[in-house]
Description:
There is one protein chain. The chain has 548 residues and is α/β, with parallel strands linked by helices. It folds into 3 domains: 1-68, no CATH class; 74-265 and 338-349, 3-Layer(aba) Sandwich (Rossmann fold); 364-538, no CATH class. Helix content is 24%, strand content 18%. The protein is built from 14 helices and 18 strands. The chain has helices spanning 36-45, 47-51, 56-64, 74-85, 114-117, 144-158, 180-190, 207-215, 253-267, 276-288, 338-341, 365-371, 424-434, 446-452; strands spanning 96-102, 126-132, 166-171, 197-201, 244-247, 291-292, 346-349, 380-384, 388-392, 396-402, 407-412, 419-423, 456-464, 471-477, 482-486, 492-500, 505-508, 538-539. It has a 6-stranded mixed beta sheet, sandwiched between helices. Strands 8-11-15-14-17 form a 5-stranded antiparallel beta sheet, with no helix packed on it. The model is unreliable at 65-71, 231-240 and 302-333 (pLDDT under 50).
Amino acid sequence: xxxxxxxxxxxxxxxxxxxxxxxxxxxxxxxxxxxxxxxxxxxxxxxxxxxxxxxxxxxxxxxxxxxxxxxxxxxxxxxxxxxxxxxxxxxxxxxxxxxxxxxxxxxxxxxxxxxxxxxxxxxxxxxxxxxxxxxxxxxxxxxxxxxxxxxxxxxxxxxxxxxxxxxxxxxxxxxxxxxxxxxxxxxxxxxxxxxxxxxxxxxxxxxxxxxxxxxxxxxxxxxxxxxxxxxxxxxxxxxxxxxxxxxxxxxxxxxxxxxxxxxxxxxxxxxxxxxxxxxxxxxxxxxxxxxxxxxxxxxxxxxxxxxxxxxxxxxxxxxxxxxxxxxxxxxxxxxxxxxxxxxxxxxxxxxxxxxxxxxxxxxxxxxxxxxxxxxxxxxxxxxxxxxxxxxxxxxxxxxxxxxxxxxxxxxxxxxxxxxxxxxxxxxxxxxxxxxxxxxxxxxxxxxxxxxxxxxxxxxxxxxxxxxxxxxxxxxxxxxxxxxxxxxxxxxxxxxxxxxxxxxxxxxxxxxxxxxxxxxxxxxxxxxxxxxxxxxxxxxxxxxxxxxx
Length: 548
């Protein structure tokens, strides 16, 4: 189907089941676009066909992992979000805000914007902060999760979020399921079904992934996952364009009891007792993250279908056909009955809040996929002397200018991004020759790409070492990753760090993982690098073989 628009056809009034934007064929650059011919075909098939459709952008995300560029300025994001939060409460109570924060991105740049989004006349019931993506971080010592939680609490306090306004802080992985059952229990115990819940967060915080995970959990009404298509999950910033929602289950005493019984029973299992399918799925998750948890369902309809994800029968384009093929006949879709939704409390997903000064805003979809970590981060440690330089792809550079002794530089970034160490005298030549090429990988596209890419700009940093086992600070190279610096006690270092012009370079003190340099193998002879070491994964709510 050619991507032709027809401004004469009015918008449908029906939301895309992938991103929530109103389906339309009038503007190819706006959210919710469906090519005109396809749109008219769907209209002719009746209302059910349109209700099950996804826009061209969601189809491209699911089918090719690529997003069509959209005009959605940050002000528009804020407007959609603010308007939703300022609606009068439907149940006499303001909504609970579930703020999803990417722990690797601390200090979270969007958290301070939260107070401005809230309405003074309809105060929200509070904010429950969810620290997501903990599965990506290796445990640098015992109790590292407690320390991460303290770091999140400190970020909340700095943003003015404390006391009664801060309901709780939970650490989870929306992707591997770690901590999600605990989050559901916490929501059911304290919030019950008192009012609506809004998921908020910066783009790429994993908010839509959490929405999809909660949709498949005991938090959602048992029939709802079969009716609601899951939010489009993609690393491209700003994929949730309007409000997607699911109805929250009322946690009656009987339901909470049945749920607790299921969780208790699951906790008695060992890995050996899992089915072949379950083991296979678990091993897949272990490759992806250091912390893994299973999200189950207690209240399942007998005839409930398995995974829906992007079901070919309910999409405007089937996932396994070319969009030029004739559309398949759409079946009548299940709908909620009036009684199921008249008093329902809803969990809303919202558009991601755009992070300004973020390197991801400068990158193509393909580059974003390389830069955003999708698997457990394996730390890479190097020992550098003064006069040496470390490159993280062509997105960040750290020069060790002055110091008495060597220091350790531990890189925490996507495993797909290359790290290169060179001398100060060669560094400019390395960048000029290899930026845009395979050697430094990102950005990609050769000289043409680098002509339009902002130059690296420097910032001088002075640090004083704590000791050879504890990092003094993280140098956060925007959202490309960070480098933890470990130096001899009282040793003064002068460093110069670079990120692309217009992106934020942050010196994070104290560091997120202070003992990270210890997670390394033997030194590789004749190089400044150490062999990498990947700590084992931990599965929550599963008995280790041999324990009682």
